[in-house]
Design goal:
By secondary structure, this protein is α/β, with parallel strands linked by helices. Helix content is 40%, strand content 14%. The chain is globular and about 60 Å long.
Length: 324
Amino acid sequence: MKLEEIGFYTLSDARVKQAGINSPLWRCELLLGARCNFKCPYCRNVGGKDLPYEQAITIVREWGLQGLKNIRFSGGEPTLWPGLVNLVTFAATQCIERIAISTNGSASADLYRQLVKAGANDFSVSLDACCAEDGDKMAGGVKGAWDVVVANIRELSMLTYTTVGIVLTEQNASKTNDIIRLAHDLGVSDIRVIPAAQNGSWLESVRVDADLLKAHPVLKYRIKNMMTGTPVRGLRETDSRRCGLVTDDMATMDDKHYPCIIYLREGGNHIGTIGPEMRRTRVQWAQDHATHIDPICSRNCLDVCRDYNNQFAAYSRRTHERNQ
């Protein structure tokens, strides 16, 4: 399977072949703070105070110097971070191709338009319900939240690349197809579904209409895994025991960089601090770290990351054999 077939624009066979200490950074995520106006029941929010604006600029500049292709701002809810528009404007000066924002969709339509104008060209919006009653509940009882989110998804989908993330719990799994249908009708580019529970085997019974799967490659990839019993989370015995993604992909909170956003949110230790040596320390971490022994990696690694790392390992093995 080619990585391009999965549907995530940050994954490709070409990336696998060039990933290393001297390759461009491919994808970096910056947590801007922990504040959020929703209280979603499944949320694994982390962090403390808002990241100071100048520190955020310093991190983005350092990433830009290393050829960063895709950046994502998240939180908490990043639209509550007061310097977001200016930070996006600065990121656009660093020749970063994709400037993404993960949001609960609750901000004003005017703010989202400002962000698009500033250079944001990728929005990921949470959508966990197909009706207002359930949607407001999933937001933690915020009255009117669902209507605002749906209206913003519809507008953002007309302005730029927009996806929705659907977190499936035992409360909303029976309405999976209805939620996906709504997202599709709102005009989104693709749809990501993921079980909130660490063991999502109870989702094998989920069924999604064929036309929806045909329209959205990321959705098709994930639903196929769920329906065939392929774990969405966790490593299998046959999977690579090293994380190739770490070499050119990172998540950051404060001035510390972590293996990935899941590792950060699950309370794992950071690898080091942002700076000129971060690539070296990440490559070393990838070489030394046994993912199957690490409980965070072994239980939480996503299917898409497993597939990338397996391709990375296979290519590295073939390269090593040719050089013998």
